[in-house]
Amino acid sequence: MARNIAQVLQELSDCKADERFCTSIASGNARSISYSELYRRSCAYAHYYRSVGIRPGDIVLVILRHSPHQFYSYLGAILAGAIPSFMPFPSPKQRSELYWADHAALFARIEPRLIVTYPENAGSARESAAASSIAICIAEDSILDRFAGDDTDFAGFDARLDDIACLQHSSGTTGLKKGVMLTHRMLLDHHAAYAQTIGFTDADSIVSWLPLYHDMGFIACFMGSLLSGTHLVALDPFEWVLRPRILFDAIEKFRTTFCWLPNFAFSHMVNAVRGSATWDLASMRAYINCSEPCKITTFDRFVDRFRDSGVSAEKLAVSYAMAENVFAVTQTPIGIPSTVRVAETASGTIEQRHLSCGFAVPGVDLRIFDSNTHVQLPDGEVGEIYIASPFLFGGYYRLPEKSRERLVDGWYATGDMGYLSEGQLYVTGRLDDMLIINGRNYYAHEMEALMADIPEIIPGRSVAIGIDEERSDATVMVILAECRDEAADVGHQVKRIVLERTGLALHAFIPVERGMLVKTTSGKLSRAKNKELYLRGQFEPRKFSGP
Amino acid sequence: MNETEIFLRIRSTVAATFHLIPETLVTRETTSATVDGWDSLSHAILIMNIEDAFGIELPFEAVSELANVGELADLVESVTSAKQSGSL
C-alpha cells in the first residue's frame, strides 16, 4: 500500500537509521545528519507545532538561511499534518521593511498560521500578518531538546495521498506569488517517474547549492534524496556564489553522482573558478541544466574549461521542469550528449541551433498549440507548450481564477513556446513577458510598475528587457525609460529601488529622451522592438557617471 | 601597505573589473547601484580579483554585506593587517 510522505520518513528512520541523509556544509564545516536524526529532530518540530496549536491543513512558512533546521522544521510540519512552504530569505541587500511589507498581501491571501524564522524577523513578520493571527517559531537548537519525545502519534501519518502535502511558491514579485498545491501522491508519483527516467537509485547521491524555495533545490535535490533514501550534500547558496569552486570540492570529497544547475550557474563556474587546479569529478553521472533557457555555448565552455577534471558532453543533460508538474516534464537521456538541432528562420537566411530538452517523462503528455487559433501544431512548428500528466497540479492555493486561466480540461498552458521534433522538446521562448534572471522569474510589467515610484521617469514610459550578456554568458535585465528633461541622474535610484524591492541587481538603467521608446501598432510600448533597438546601439547606453 | 596604497589598488581593481575609465571615477562612496553590470555574480568576480591583487581570502559573510567601496577597503585593510601580524 502506498505510503504518504510522513510514513516514508518514519520508514527511512527505521530502515536506514545510521545512513547519511545529508551533509550540510557552511564555511567549510561539514555537519552530517543521519536518517534517524532527521526523523527525531523533525518529530521535535512536530511536537512543538502541536504544542502551539498547529492543526492539520494549517500553513507553515519556513524562512531560514542555509541550515539543517530548514529540513527539520519543514518535515516537522508534514509530520504534524500542516502544509509547509519554503520562502526566500531576504538577501543582505534587500531592505528588511520592504521585504516584509511586500509579504503582507501574500499573508492576507494564504493566512499562514506560523512562520519559522530568526528573532530579528519576528516583529516584522507579525506586522506583515496583522490581519491574521500568526505564531512565530524561532529556529534554534533548544526546540530540538525541549520537544524531544517518544510519542509520535502525529496527524501527518493519517494524511491521505490526495491531501495537500506542501505549497511550492512561484518566484517573482512577492504579493503575486502563486502557491502550487502539491499532494503526497503527486510528490511520490513524480519521484517514481523521474527516478526511472534518469536511472536514479539509492546508490546515487546529490550535491546542491540551490536554495530550497526553488523547485530545483526543493524537489530535485531535497525530495529527490529523501524519497530515494540517499545522500544529499547541501551547500550554502550565498557561499557558492562567492566561492563556486566549493561545488567541485564537495563532489570530489563526497563522490556525488547528480547535480542540478540553472544555465547561469554553468557560466558562473567557468567565469569564477580560477587557476589551474583540477578536481577528480569522475563520480558524477550528470550535471542537469534546468530552469532557464539552456545554451549550447554555455555547455561548450563548461566542457572546455573543466575537461581535465573529468567533465564531458556525455555528462551534461537538460531538463524542462516546472512546479506545476511537481518538477520534471522532460529529460534528455543520461550518459549521451544532448541533441542539437539546426533550425532555420522563416526567411531561411539565419540558422539557429536549438538544444533539446529531451523526451517527456513517463506519463507526461506534451502538445504544441497555436497560441491564437488553439489548433494543435505538427512536429517542427513553434507554438505554446501544453502538458498533461498524472502529477499535474490541481490549482494554485486560494487563486481559483488564476488556476482556471491556466488549467483547461486537464491540460496546463505553460506560457512557454517551443516545438517537438522526433519526440524531443525544444523550448524557444516565452509567450508572456516573463524574464528568467539567475534562475528566478521576473515579470517585465512588474519591474516597469516599480518605476512609478520615481518622479523623474515619465509614468508608463519604461520597458524591462532581458539581454544575453556576452562577457558573463548570462541573461541580465536592463530597464529603458523615458525621463523628464530635468532628470539628471536617476540610475542610482532605479537600481536601489529594484534591488530593495526584488533583490535583483539590475544590470543597467538606460534613460532616454521623451518620445524615444517605440510603440506597437496598438499604442503600447514594445519590449521586443525596443530591445532590438537597444542591441543595435540606438539608445546611447549611459556609462558610469560617478556618485 | 598603508591605507592609501590599499585604496588605490582596490580602486584600480574595481575599475578594471567593471571597465570604468578613468579609474578616478571610483571613490570610497561608490556602490554597486552606481556601476552598470555590478550584480551578485560580478560581485563574486570582483572579490576574486581583489583577493588575487592582495594575496588574501576575504570572509564570505562580510563580503556579502559590504555597502560601498570604502567598506571593501576597510575589510581588505583589516584582513591584510591580521595576516601581517599573524606572519610576524
Descriptive report:
The complex is a heterodimer of chains A (547) and B (88). By secondary structure, chain A is of the alpha/beta class. Among the domains of chain A are: 5-188 and 203-211 and 231-236, ANL, N-terminal domain (Rossmann fold, 3-Layer(aba) Sandwich), CATH 3.40.50.12780; 434-535, 2-Layer Sandwich (GMP Synthetase, Chain A, domain 3). In chain A, 31% of the residues lie in helices and 27% in strands. Chain A is built from 16 helices and 27 strands. In chain A, strands 11, 12, 13, 14, 17, 18, 19, 20, 21 and 22 form a ten-stranded mixed sheet that branches. Chain A has a four-stranded mixed sheet with strand order 2-1-10-9, with helices on both faces. In chain A, helix 1 packs across helix 2 and helix 2 crosses helix 3. The model of chain A is unreliable at 541-547 (pLDDT under 50). With 88 residues, chain B is mostly helical. Helix content of chain B is 62%, strand content 0%. Chain B has helices at 3-18, 40-54, 60-64, 69-87. The two termini of chain B are 15 Å apart. At the A-B interface, helix 9, helix 11 and helix 15 of A face helix 2 and helix 3 of B.
CATH class annotation of the domain at 5-188 and 203-211 and 231-236 in chain A: Alpha Beta
**How would you spell out the order of helices and strands of chain B?**
HHHH
Uncertain segments of chain A are 541-547
What is the count of β-strands of chain B? Answer: 0
Name of the level-1 CATH class of chain B: Mainly Alpha
DSSP strand count of chain A: 27
Relative strand content of chain B: under 5%
Radius of gyration of chain A: 24 Å
Question: Tally the helices of chain B: what do you get?
Answer: 4
Radius of gyration of chain B: 12 Å
- Biggest contact: A-B, 37 and 29 residues
- Termini separation of chain B (Å)? 15 Å
Relevant CATH superfamily of the domain at 5-188 and 203-211 and 231-236 in chain A: ANL, N-terminal domain
Biggest sheet layout of chain B: none
